[in-house]
Input
Amino acid sequence: MQKLVITLRAARVNNGLTLKDVAKATGKAADTINKYERDSSSIPRDLLCRLLQLYGVDGDVIFYGRESDFIGKKNKSA
Output
């Protein structure tokens, strides 16, 4: 059985949060959060830990890398 993996954007949306909500909760700009949702490969560890806590997910369920790569892999396996 394949393990469920989601993007940071999916984790945020699944929790009913907007970029503005997350920006306020983390003290970061919404553009910064959006940048790391598009490519989480270089997200600072402290921000990642804060987002995981905010979203209530473990780090092992998050896809790390470019969101477009994740979508591409998902479409190829369908």
Remarks:
- Residues 24 and 30 are 8 Å apart (CA to CA).
- The mean pLDDT is 92.
